[in-house]
Amino acid sequence: MIPHYRVVCAIIHQQDKILAVQRSENMKLPLKWEFPGGKIEPNESEQQCIQREIKEELDIDIEVLQRLNPVLHDYPDFSIELIPYTAKYVGGDLKLKEHAQHRLLDKHELQELDWAEADVPIVEEYLEV
Ligand SMILES: Nc1nc2c([nH]c(=O)n2[C@H]2C[C@H](O)[C@@H](COP(=O)(O)OP(=O)(O)OP(=O)(O)O)O2)c(=O)[nH]1
Q1: Tally of structural domains, the chain
Q2: Residue with CA at minimum distance from ligand 1 atom 3
Q3: What's the pTM value of the predicted model, to 2 decimals?
Q4: Ligand 1, from 80, 83, 120: best to mutate by most atoms within 8 Å of Cβ?
Q5: ipTM score of the complex?
Q6: Is 38's C-beta closer than 6 angstroms to any atom of ligand 1?
Q7: Could you tell me the residue range of the domain that residue 15 belongs to?
Q8: Whose CA is nearest to atom 27 of ligand 1?
Q9: Beta-carbon count within 10 A of 103 CB
Q10: Which CATH number fits the domain that encloses residue 109?
Q11: Which helix (H) or strand (E) holds 105?
Q12: Residues 6 or more apart from 55 whose CB is under 8 A from it?
């Protein structure tokens, strides 16, 4: 049986820009772009998870806004339910703890990145909102 993960990610707006982060070479899905977030821990709500992960990975504070449609995706060695939330940057200096780099992009630039496969439908839905 391959593992299944429930993962929450945040589409964070900072003024008119959206934050994307690139996975490091030593992570799974190396160098793919994603929205910051991570696996839900036992007894944790989706909103608690996203607040915790954003603090751990980026050391910034966000206000969580709206839940978008989750995506189910099968990678060759694991499967995920990826649950996106829109969010607003509220403060703190961004420090990357795990990722290779970050970019703040205009909405129309999002499709130029090499996204993790599970993120592709999320980017597409977000561009329609
Ligand atoms: N955080 C995040 N993870 C994503 C996205 N898209 C996507 O396929 N994933 C995958 C990558 C990871 O395997 C998993 C999220 O787990 P995680 O962020 O806690 O990853 P991790 O550090 O545990 O990674 P690893 O140690 O297992 O290599 O979901 C996304 O947009 N955001």
Answers
A1: 1
A2: 38
A3: 0.95
A4: 80
A5: 0.93
A6: yes
A7: 4-128
A8: 28
A9: 15
A10: 3.90.79.10
A11: strand 101-105
A12: 61
